[in-house]
Amino acid sequence: MSDHTAGQPATPGDPEGIDPSVLDELTRLRDSIDNIDAAVVHMLAERFKCTQQVGHLKAAHRLPPADPAREARQITRLRQLAESAKLDPGFAEKLLNFVIAEVIRHHETIARSDNGPNGPNGPKGPEGAPR
């Protein structure tokens, strides 16, 4: 028999006294959350594959790692998407700003490695050949 009295919540991790249908629903919802989290991770991985390619293209053409105009357009776009999806636009903006900061960090690293003294786009040697 349960130590819980009617109307008092069970303690976390103690399912005794909780209606089994509630536990089933909780499990179903958590499984759904886990699947969504996995999808988010995979989508971010795909996004970063694309941004890595952008970083190499920018480095090859000596473009700056950051593009503030593009970033502002993306933030505006994502806020609108968030509103239509009934997600807090402020949260969506914070998330995108975090992602953008990471992308810029990657682009800076790529630019250093691609354009450094020994990189394929680095300074030319004495005969004009890449070092």
From TrEMBL:
Region (Disordered): 1-20, 110-131
Residue ranges of domain Chorismate mutase in the record: 20-111
PROSITE patterns per record: CHORISMATE_MUT_2
Listed EC numbers: 5.4.99.5
InterPro entries: Chorismate_II_sf, Chorismate_mutase-related, CM_bact, CM_dom_sf, CM_II_prokaryot
An example Gene Ontology molecular-function term: chorismate mutase activity
Keywords: Isomerase
Enzyme class, first EC level, given as a word: isomerase
One biological process term in Gene Ontology: chorismate metabolic process
NCBIfam families listed in its UniProt record: CM_mono_cladeE, PRK09239.1
Protein name (record): Chorismate mutase
